[in-house]
Amino acid sequence: ATNLSRHFKVGGSLFRKPKILRAVEDVSLTVQQGETLAIVGESGCGKSTLARMLMRLIEPTSGQMTFEGRQIDLAQGRALTELRRDMQFIFQDPFSSLNPRMTVGRLVGEPIETHAPQLSARERRAKVAELLAQVGLRPEHADRYPHEFSGGQRQRIGIARALASGPKLIIGDEPVSALDVSVQAQVINLLADLRDRLGLTLVVIAHDLAVIRHMSDRVAVMYLGSVVEEGGTDDIFARPRHPYTRALLSAIPVAEYGRTRQQIPLEGEMPSPLDPPSGCRFHTRCPFARDACKTEAPVLRATDTAPGHRAACHFFEEIAAENPPPPATEG
Ligand code: SF4
Ligand code: MG
């Protein structure tokens, strides 16, 4: 995705100019085949809007999106059908995304029918059974309805449905945040396992860095519609450079983070994207903000830590030098 933006007009009328909601502003991201990219931020940061644009569920206001050289934003007709076969979406709430009147067999069989109409009913049933086995469900589950399953099982049904077309890329919009903490790890592990076995590329949207720590290769942190930091997951966790990322990491319990670190509190609410702060959009909440931050918007630039690690902060070098992480501890 290159320079993607999505603006929504809000509350316009004949006499009042609509406000422009800049949900996603000038975002550029690349995912390599077989890689897992996590897009992280608080709710309202634009990450779901970004994911929906990639799936053409909503249209970008400007910018380009390509998948294996094919331009997603221009695809029509058959090209769009093929893109929808190759790119699939897993929704946050598995219950509301599954039609309650359809059996699991039909829910999973429907995309097979769309994308492989040549299969006989019997071949299709065999394929449904195979998909259910891949996500850890049993063949007899095909005759049941979504309400008969737990949240974790329903998300497994959603994953089987997403796999039915034989996709190369799966985008998960907070795929585990509606689930009990105890089953979140199971579903995350299932996704990582399917990625490795099927050679999938994953884009996982999350508001919680801890959830994606062990499954993602790279992380992009979003704040108010823009990517403020991106880099390799291990590098971001060990050497975060943007104050917002530092604050998000501070919120993760030490037991899950595995080392002690200084606490950088995240104060206040995220400002409305209808009226974003000037300059650096994080300046209203940043403990390191200076006068220049109010007027000059920082751009993503390379950090000193590892290739591909970039942060959008005027002062990250000084902040890192003055606030070194405490020595790592075992744990
Ligand atoms: Fe904070 Fe300024 Fe850096 Fe923005 S540019 S993150 S306000 S120090
Ligand atoms: Mg969301």
Known CATH architecture of the domain at 35-63 and 83-216: 3-Layer(aba) Sandwich
Name the overall outline.
elongated
Rg over CA atoms: 21 Å
Q: Based on helices, strands and strand pairing, what is the structural class?
A: alpha/beta
Give the helix proportion (percent range): 25-40%
Number of strands: 13
Low-confidence stretches: 10-18
Number of helices: 12
Q: What's the end-to-end separation, in Å?
A: 38 Å
Note the run of SSEs as H and E. Answer: EEEHEEEHEHHHEHEHEEHHHHEEH
Strand content: 15-25%
Q: Cofactors and ligands present?
A: iron/sulfur cluster, magnesium ion
- Averaged pLDDT: 85
Family: Belongs to the ABC transporter superfamily.
Protein name: Peptide/nickel transport system ATP-binding protein/oligopeptide transport system ATP-binding protein
Subcellular location: Cell inner membrane
Membrane topology: Peripheral membrane protein
Description:
The chain has about 325 residues and is an alpha/beta fold. The protein has a domain at about 35-65 and about 85-215: Rossmann fold (3-Layer(aba) Sandwich), CATH 3.40.50.300. Helix content is about 35%, strand content about 20%. It is built from twelve helices and 13 strands. The chain has helices at about 45-55, 75-85, 105-115, 120-135, 150-165, 180-200, 210, 235-240, 245-250, 255, 290-295, 315-320, and strands at about 1-10, 20-25, 35-40, 60-65, 65, 70, 85-90, 170-175, 200-205, 220-225, 225-230, 300, 310. The strands form three sheets. An eight-stranded mixed sheet has the order 7-8-9-3-10-11-13-12, with helices on both faces. Helix 3 crosses helix 4 (about 120-135), helix 3 (about 105-115) packs parallel to helix 5 and helix 4 packs across helix 5 (about 150-165). The longest helix is centred in the middle third of the chain and has 18 residues, at about 180-200. The two termini are about 40 Å apart. Residues about 10-20 have low confidence and may be disordered. Magnesium ion binds near residues 43 and 48.
